[in-house]
Design the sequence.
DNA sequence: CGGAACGTTGATAGCTATCAATCGACGTGG
DNA sequence: CCACGTCGATTGATAGCTATCAACGTTCCG
């Protein structure tokens, strides 16, 4: 990862100093009709990209956590999905960052970071595909927990293998392609196996080795060339 | 979509004129250990990004068709998956294109096209997530066929709702998260319903309206700003 | 205190996987 | 030219994972 120049660091400092927006739980940060909203970065809270089928089935395509953006691609907007806040979400405007990333000769470090973030987003989508395509309910749940542990850890939200976990069982079902009832039973089994503790919206991984045995999770390793 | 300048068009013409590489069916265009190969664009043939689990389960994360690239993100390399040729695949080197895309002030049209391609790749991954998470076997199959019809159509490979379809039933299973046996039965049902014809590696969509009724597919609509 | 949201439990149904076998097409070697 | 092996497709029987339905418990809050 390229170090940022003093100039870039200063730039980012100013970019992050803008006023934050607040989004209530269940509110939509992004609608289907796709007006061209400015890019936003999540400062705190969890959100999810949601797709709904005609008959009401819901799929949470991806979770969006602090440090991540709703729109990893420069200046491109796509619709067909919405982004919904799960908890209270705080965002900052990312326009300045995107503009800077569009001038790689001037801001090489920022351009690189934006490209890496987009690739990271893609790697996580691929992980979600594997979960849904070829893993059992038990494995999906564990793999997701390991992924979230990794992602939260990257932004300092994990302490003693424990972190805030604001997903309802219904949300977990929509994320993992399972029914609420089955999510409930899967969680109970994990608790009974003493692999996790989950209560009051906080998840603790009690046995990392045991969890890794149920479902491997490899953090995406991204490398930037040049 | 921004028009390319004459300069850019000329540039792309030279970029595509390089020698093509050939890849035999089942050969790997990209390995896990991730040496930093140059970016490649597929000129003809089908390939798939594959992830394998410890116990041998396989998931085809995405299909890669003519006009698409294995690595949509500029200069970023990630591993954990491989890319395998399904048919004979022909590729050209995309290094020059990436370099040009890295100079948006000089080559705005190319930079935009590369960004749109990356967003397109992401939209298709999202579609795959929805398929695997919330659709039945029947719906998955139809949705996939509609997506492939759309993608092939975009590069002129569709004639009379008919196009080359080189996937074995095993590959379809690994792509859609189904067993081979169930893929077979699903296909038979679709044939029996006179929705499709599939033989000799060619798929014909016999009833677009009927297919759309089974599983909607909306092509990703991407817009570029500025 | 009533209600809403979320979590839990038991019974049953159903979709899809697995197992096993057969068949056809194709390519190769004797 | 034909036997043989391989790969892909097909079929039938059975098992199993997960969904659905329905009811109840719990927590929280206006």
Sequence:
């Amino acid at each position: 990862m390229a170090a940022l120049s003093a100039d870039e660091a200063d730039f980012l400092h100013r970019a992050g100093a803008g006023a934050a927006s607040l989004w209530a739980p269940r509110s939509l940060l992004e609608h289907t009709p796709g007006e061209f909203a400015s890019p936003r970065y999540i400062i705190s809270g969890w959100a999810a990209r949601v797709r709904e089928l005609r008959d009401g089935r819901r799929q949470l395509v991806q979770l969006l956590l602090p440090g991540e953006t709703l729109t990893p691609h420069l200046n491109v907007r796509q619709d067909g999905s919405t982004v919904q806040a799960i908890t209270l979400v705080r965002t900052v405007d990312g326009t300045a960052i995107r503009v800077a990333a569009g001038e790689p000769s001037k801001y090489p470090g920022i351009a690189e970071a934006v490209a890496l973030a987009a690739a990271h987003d893609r790697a996580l989508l691929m992980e979600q595909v594997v979960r849904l395509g070829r893993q059992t309910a038990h494995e999906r749940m564990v793999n997701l927990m390991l992924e979230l542990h990794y992602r939260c850890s990257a932004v300092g939200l994990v302490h003693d293998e424990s972190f805030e976990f604001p997903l309802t069982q219904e949300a977990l079902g929509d994320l993992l392609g399972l029914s609420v009832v089955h999510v409930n039973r899967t969680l109970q089994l994990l608790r009974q196996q003493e692999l996790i503790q989950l209560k009051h919206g906080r998840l603790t991984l009690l046995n990392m080795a045991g969890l890794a045995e149920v479902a491997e999770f490899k953090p995406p390793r991204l490398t930037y060339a040049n």
